[in-house]
Amino acid sequence: MAKTAFITGITGQDGAYLSEFLLSRGYRVFGGYRRTSSPNFWRIEELNIMKDIELMEVDIQDTGNLIRTFEKVKPDEVYNLAAQSFVAVSFEKPVLTGEITAIGVTRVLEAIRIVNPRIKFYQASSSEMFGKVQETPQKESTPFYPRSPYATAKLYGHWLTINYRESYNIFGCSGILFNHESPLRGIEFVTRKVSDAVARIKLGKQDYFEIGNMDAKRDWGYAKEFVEGMWLMMQRPDPGDYVLATNENHSVREFIEHAFSFVGTTLEWKGSDANEYGFDAKTGKTLVKINPKFFRPGEVDQLLGDYSKAKTVLGWEPKVRFRELVEIMVQRDLDRVSRLG
Ligand code: NAP
Ligand code: F7E
């Protein structure tokens, strides 16, 4: 019989790709979205899977809502992807971030414990939990050192998943995912902000863009591949924690440079710190400016993941690497901007 999955955060980047993947595996997919005055289904519409998913209004701030949903849907697997996921906003809204990103996990796990403790549970943990890194590369056993309210909230969810596994025998997996990006990434995250801006500049719709700390390094992978890793964790005989990463890292500056080079522009830099700027080597036009409003009170300088456990146990390995990822994203934004303006 076909399995049933319930995804919290189905309107987000990973929710959309995971839905597409589970549908391809013959799952019946239910997804929770929170009520807003104007619905936000653009990602599942872009993937053309809207008609195949059963959408339900579910807020992870409401335990009763979750319990009734699980009673009705009777899921075999629950993927908890809902979160206030933007690190920068977590400094401005630390309490809200804790409510959704940390306590939200308790609500989902409690609903599972009450409705049916045999429901398998996936928690979207994050490489941000490594924060001020204690060793490089980071793996499952690396000590955590969160650097933001977001990362601290994720650490709570991570440990609670382990706690419910050990206390109630709930099949709870935790995927410690390093940054994963795609054309469906939210525009506020740095990769998509850059791919969109570079496409607009190339097509003459924008003159320049503003950026924060360009020296931060991230281990950027392709979201479409990472969601498969989530599913693989849930198919093992025993639950566990797994790092998914590419084991390659690059700076924000390199991302910007490669995005411009893909559209045929050579970028050069002048100045330093907040006065640094990037310009077109051919025309001299300024294309990138620093704006300190994008600096964070606490920064994660560099992340680099070791995915050996996922490779050995799950047979999971990333294929799309940095340069290809940048090109996929810029190309899709060029298409979008040409089509929609
Ligand atoms: P995303 O695009 O920001 O999606 C987050 C989702 O959570 C959206 O569907 C959002 O709904 C939903 N949500 C927020 N508050 C909610 C609430 N109170 N009740 C129900 N839903 C709520 O994030 P993503 O990139 O897909 O990431 C998926 C998960 O993995 C998140 O938990 C994120 O923290 C974590 N993670 C992401 C990465 C990464 O690099 N992408 C890496 C590690 C971990 P709206 O559409 O209404 O806002
Ligand atoms: O920042 C720097 C910024 O916001 C990456 C989330 O999915 O991945 C994501 O968190 C870096 C940081 O992602 C701008 O300071 C410079 O060093 O794209 P980001 P993130 O903070 O790494 C982790 C794994 C998650 O779990 C999170 O949910 O880029 N940066 N200038 C900038 N960042 C942004 N957003 N905007 C800038 O203008």
Short characterization:
This protein has 341 residues and is an alpha/beta fold.
How would you portray this structure in words?
By secondary structure, the protein is of the alpha/beta class. It has eleven helices and 15 strands. Strands 3-2-1-4-5-6-11 form a seven-stranded parallel β-sheet, sandwiched between helices. A four-stranded mixed β-sheet has the order 8-15-14-13. A two-stranded parallel ribbon has the order 7-10. α1 crosses α8. The longest helix is centred in the N-terminal third of the chain and has 22 residues. It starts with a strand and ends with a helix. The relative contact order is 0.13. The model has no long low-confidence stretch (mean pLDDT 97). Ligand F7E binds next to α4 and α7.
Shape: globular
Helix content: 40-55%
Number of helices: 11
User: How much is the radius of gyration in Å?
Assistant: 20 Å
Mean pLDDT: 97
**Major β-sheet annotation:** 7 strands, parallel
Structural class: alpha/beta
> In whole angstroms, how far apart are the ends?
46 Å
Order of helices and strands: EHEHEHEHHEHEEHEEEHEEHEEEHH
Poorly predicted runs of 5 or more residues: none
For the largest beta sheet, what order do the strands appear in spatially? 3-2-1-4-5-6-11
The count of strands amounts to 15
List the bound ligands.
NADP nicotinamide-adenine-dinucleotide phosphate, ligand F7E
